[in-house]
């Protein structure tokens, strides 16, 4: 059974920018952190340099943050397993973990997205792979990796299938300049974090086309209405969407160029080819694939999400960004709510 006490050890999967930033925060809180990376050469380089030169240069690893390329090491190191890899690798990692886990393990993820191809929520993927007896949860909020890694003030939400795991997760992260709120609304936290990436692309497209602050504010507000419609239809809590993992993260990523999703939108609005733009960003841009997953999810739920649908058309149907804007502005007159 999970207790709500702060764990002493934790295993972190994903040595990209976010996995490393969270590992640093956990280590600063005194946890014994073991960090795993997908690419053995990269994790070896991190271990040798005692920093993640590729993703977060100049931020040294404390002694209680150690690296490994062995999943077995992580499973044995701690009951608390934290997954911070892009959504396209989520199911595969769970498949690898399944035969190694025992009843005391819990899984928390910090991945933002849906399963690529199926549009399934990550908690659905987790239950399909590991069954419904394991305690699970996620952390999400307006948190750029670099700022968290530098120890700048930040806040996020920890939602879990049990109150004890939400509290245990929050206790693991909370400390110094980091504040964490708990929630029992896993679905709402997942939806906010996934859809905001698509909307950040939309905001970037608008700015890349040279539109102004009015257009950006309209995208954020009407985008929020899209998340709320979907969340409401799927049974999430409205307040969650108004919280850190919803409106908080939406505003952050739609307005600041640290967001890779926003930067992809900027490049598309400026007329750049999508593959070139993603290669230049050189890190995970979840919103591109999530736009397709949201398209599937919204269809299944019977919910209209016009801004997200336009991002999908720009990315998957070659629609010109200018035409996407025309399509949005030509929609029929209707009440705001
Ligand atoms: N960065 C941020 O500020 C935040 C990110 N997130 C979320 O965190 C998740 C991870 O993103 P982030 O760390 O930023 O991305 P990065 O691009 O910085 O790093 C991704 C890491 O995952 C590795 N990777 C790639 N494919 C796989 C796979 N199939 N299985 C396992 N590992 C893989 C990459 O390895 P390699 O280097 O070898 O390609 C790299 O180490 C995303 O869902 C993102 O939305 C959430 C909040 C904030
Ligand atoms: O989720 C994030 C901040 O909360 C990071 O956003 P990007 O993935 O767009 O960089």
From TrEMBL:
Protein name: Glycerol-3-phosphate dehydrogenase [NAD(P)+]
Compartment(s) of residence: Cytoplasm
Primary residence: cytoplasm
Residues annotated to bind NAD(+): 14-19, 38, 145, 260
Family (UniProt): Belongs to the NAD-dependent glycerol-3-phosphate dehydrogenase family.
Glycerol-3-phosphate dehydrogenase NAD-dependent N-terminal domain segment(s): 9-162
Residues reported in the UniProt entry to bind sn-glycerol 3-phosphate: 112, 141, 143, 196, 249, 259-261
Pathway per the UniProt entry: Membrane lipid metabolism; glycerophospholipid metabolism
MF (Gene Ontology): glycerol-3-phosphate dehydrogenase (NAD+) activity; glycerol-3-phosphate dehydrogenase (NADP+) activity; NAD binding
Summary of the function given for this chain in its UniProt record: Catalyzes the reduction of the glycolytic intermediate dihydroxyacetone phosphate (DHAP) to sn-glycerol 3-phosphate (G3P), the key precursor for phospholipid synthesis.
Keyword Mitochondrion: no
Entry keywords, A to Z: Cytoplasm, Lipid biosynthesis, Lipid metabolism, NAD, NADP, Nucleotide-binding, Oxidoreductase, Phospholipid biosynthesis, Phospholipid metabolism
Name of a matching Pfam family: NAD_Gly3P_dh_N
PROSITE patterns: NAD_G3PDH
Residue span, Glycerol-3-phosphate dehydrogenase NAD-dependent C-terminal domain: 185-326
Presence of keyword Transferase: no
HAMAP family, A to Z: NAD_Glyc3P_dehydrog
NCBIfam families: PRK00094.1-2, PRK00094.1-4
Active site: 196 (proton acceptor)
Residues binding substrate: 112, 260-261
PANTHER family: GLYCEROL-3-PHOSPHATE DEHYDROGENASE, GLYCEROL-3-PHOSPHATE DEHYDROGENASE [NAD(+)] 2, CHLOROPLASTIC
GO cellular component, one term: cytosol
Catalytic reaction list: sn-glycerol 3-phosphate + NADP(+) = dihydroxyacetone phosphate + NADPH + H(+); sn-glycerol 3-phosphate + NAD(+) = dihydroxyacetone phosphate + NADH + H(+)
A GO biological process held by the record: glycerol-3-phosphate biosynthetic process
Known EC number: 1.1.1.94
């Amino acid at each position: 059974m999970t207790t709500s006490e702060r764990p002493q050890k934790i295993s972190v999967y994903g040595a990209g920018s976010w996995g490393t930033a969270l590992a640093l925060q956990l280590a600063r809180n005194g946890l014994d952190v073991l960090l795993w990376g997908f690419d053995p050469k990269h994790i070896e380089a991190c271990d040798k340099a005692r920093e993640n030169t590729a993703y977060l240069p100049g931020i040294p690893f404390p002694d209680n943050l150690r690296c490994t390329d062995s999943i077995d090491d992580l499973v044995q190191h701690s009951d608390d397993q934290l997954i911070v890899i892009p959504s396209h690798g989520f199911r595969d990692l769970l498949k690898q973990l399944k035969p190694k886990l025992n009843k005391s393990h819990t899984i928390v993820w910090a991945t933002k997205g849906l399963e690529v191809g199926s549009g399934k929520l990550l908690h659905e993927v987790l239950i399909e792979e590991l069954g419904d007896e394991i305690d699970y949860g996620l952390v999400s909020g307006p948190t750029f990796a670099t700022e968290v890694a530098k120890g700048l003030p930040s806040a996020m939400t920890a939602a879990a299938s049990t109150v004890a795991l939400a509290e245990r997760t929050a206790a693991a992260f909370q400390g110094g300049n980091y504040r964490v709120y708990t929630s029992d609304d896993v679905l709402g936290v997942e939806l906010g974090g996934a859809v905001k990436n698509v909307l950040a692309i939309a905001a970037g497209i608008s700015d890349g086309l040279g539109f102004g602050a009015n257009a950006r504010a309209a995208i954020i507000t009407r985008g929020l209405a899209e998340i709320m419609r979907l969340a409401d239809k799927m049974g999430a809590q409205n307040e969650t969407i108004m919280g850190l993992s919803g409106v908080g993260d939406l505003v952050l990523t739609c307005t600041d160029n640290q967001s890779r999703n926003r930067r992809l939108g900027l490049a598309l609005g400026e007329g750049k080819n999508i593959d070139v733009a993603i290669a230049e960003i050189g890190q995970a841009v979840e919103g591109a694939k999530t736009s397709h997953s949201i398209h599937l999810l919204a269809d299944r739920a019977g919910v209209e999400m016009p801004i997200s649908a336009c991002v999908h058309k720009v990315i998957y149907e070659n629609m010109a960004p200018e035409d996407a804007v025309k399509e949005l502005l030509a929609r029929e007159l209707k009440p705001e709510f």
